[in-house]
Amino acid sequence: MTSARSQAGAEPGAEPGSGSGLRNDLGWALGVVFRGYVKAANAAFTDVPGGPRGYQVLATAARSEPGSQQELAHHLGVDRTVMTYLLDDLERARLIERHADPADRRARRIAPTERGRALLSDLDQRLGAAEEHVLAGLTAPDRQAFRALLCQAAWHASAADPGGSACALADSAGETRLGQAGGC
Fold it and tell me: Does residue 178 form part of some domain?
């Protein structure tokens, strides 16, 4: 996700604005922060089936009412087939359970187990530490402002492209995907 502009004159270890031409290059800045976040998040989620994607499934199942397995896949932008394998792995690890939906016996609802909730609490702490590491160059008020502005931009971008998934965007940008090798 580098542009010709961001590569021109870039020196390893150079501060943005120190003659590197990167001070205002959004693509470069997003790429650096994204790669740092992916690396830190992957390290935080080493013991979760599916890595960061397994965390997302577990967190969504624990914190919201995603409905059926299919609705969960759609909500997270994960292919239904990949979601099935991911849920199989999480279920084998005794982190989630699948229950028949009383309204539709063909549908399955996903619920975290007690073990899954305990792991989720630990993972939340690890992810918080990883996020703090990535944003360590900002003051506490700037971190809050950055998060708020980034979320606002993300919601706007998501609304402008409701059919686009994070995986499709990452694939098209040639970036490393969060989650298991093998994809979305």
Answer: no
